[in-house]
Known about the structure:
Elements (H helix, E strand, L loop, with lengths): L1 H35 L7 H5 L2 E9 L2 E8 L17 H19 L2 H5 L9 H24 L5 H20 L4 H37 L6 H26 L3 H4 L4 H23 L6 H16 L14 H11 L25 H6 L1 H10 L12 H12 L7
Amino acid sequence: MEAYLLDWANLLVRWLHLIAGIAWIGASFYFVMLDTSLKAPKNPEDAKRGVFGELWAVHGGGFYHSQKYLTGPKHEPLSHDLHWSKWEAYTTWLSGMGMMAIVYWIGASSYLIDSQVMALSPAAAIGISIAFLVAGWVFYDVLCRNMVGRDGLLVAIVFVFVMAANYLLHQVFSARGAYIHVGAMIGTMMAANVFFHIIPGQKRMVEQIRRGEPVDAKPGIVGKQRSVHNTYFTLPVLFIMISNHYPMTYANPNGWLVLGVLMVAGVLIRQFFVLRHRGQVKWWLPAAGAALILLLMVLMAPRQVDASGDKVSFATVRQVMDQRCVSCHAEKPSYEGFVQAPKGVMLENPEQIAQHAAKIAETVASGYMPLGNLTHITAQERETIAIWHAQGASTAN
């Protein structure tokens, strides 16, 4: 019953995380588009009122006129009916941490720890997990506080830091666990940017405007810096959110480098859209991103298996399945913590094994399965399955 309830918790929190993430990312993308599409106000009276830029838009059968004030309107009161974009960010982060707890902390033995990488107790793994998230934010925040206005150098240092953390995480956790922690670390930076800087800075500016005091522009500058960082973090984090479905990426022997290349590709593609909103169309950016992905596809292509030797009998493969796979991939799994077969894949009879032969060969050869090698499959057994599949994956003995 406990595993069944955890499955429901996983489903509902994951659903909430997806909904909140869509809302946050949608709002972020919209405001980046708005900010980079602004034109100088055409009406001189608007400029006198403090309008920095404006945008006319059409959507859903209506027309919209957006105006931006850098430090609030001049010579008129600021409306009390302000819309704040914050709960989307907070809900995304909180639900993400809920997912982290349900999948990677409660299920640390299965999803976070790989004894072939580092032998950890669940408590130690969870402690390291939390420490990485906290330390990542602290280091990033200190950097940003001390490098306002030095954006080029700051971006370079942040990238090196993220890649260093990415590499270190792969030396501690399972490959899947390492990937999700890179995403969680960046997601924590993004949400903390909103909570500690963007919203408090905006509130201070609102209070100054309403008291009739000179408005300090620094909170707006800092908020802009953090907001820009968030928009470039978005595509890498989105990739990491879906990466657990694609073990060919994180189960690669150089999975940390694969992740780094894909993050760079995401940033290049995002930069194309940011500049496009400004009227600058630079096709080399998405072309470079696509080229990096194509290069990965070529370099990561599975090696050809030599199937010219003795024929591997299905009985041999079936024995490996029974010893290493069926404890989880069964109608009623016997492995603790599994109430149903992962992804509904059952491997209890020849028909089921034949149905999933290609996926079995891929995931076993990559090292992704069994999870954390909990059932201690050997390199020879992995090779045997690869050869069996290359020879036609016959289930006839």
